[in-house]
Write a structure and sequence with these properties.
There is one protein chain. By secondary structure, the chain is α+β, with helices and mostly antiparallel strands. It has two helices and six strands. The protein has one domain. The protein has a six-stranded mixed beta sheet. The longest helix has 9 residues.
């Protein structure tokens, strides 16, 4: 049985709840505004630092998930030779059947 925690949603700041998935590397959120989504710890830290326009853009996406899919926000892996100045966020719809919830 999953242990639920309360925290403000990292996308819209509403009161939400989450539980840990993927060996405590990701949080599975249930927000009354954004609905259900998953965010990695690293992506959540970047969202906190991001501007409101970035969070607002991501906040709309979970509600657009196709049936039996979840919106997942993470930081894509970069090659060691990457010249990117800072990590970027990525969001995609993933079939629930591929997730360990």
């Amino acid at each position: 049985m999953a242990e639920y925690f309360k925290q403000d949603c990292p996308l819209c700041s509403s009161s939400a709840e989450y539980y840990w998935v993927d060996a405590h590397n990701r949080k599975y959120y249930h927000c009354p505004i954004c609905t259900y989504f998953i965010v990695s710890k690293r992506a959540e830290a970047l969202l906190v630092e991001a501007g409101a326009h970035v969070r607002e853009a991501y906040a709309a996406r979970p509600r657009q998930a196709p049936e039996d899919h979840l919106f997942v926000i993470l930081v894509p892996s970069q090659s060691p030779s990457s010249d990117a100045p800072r990590p970027s966020l990525s969001g995609s719809f993933v079939p629930k059947s591929e997730m360990r919830l």
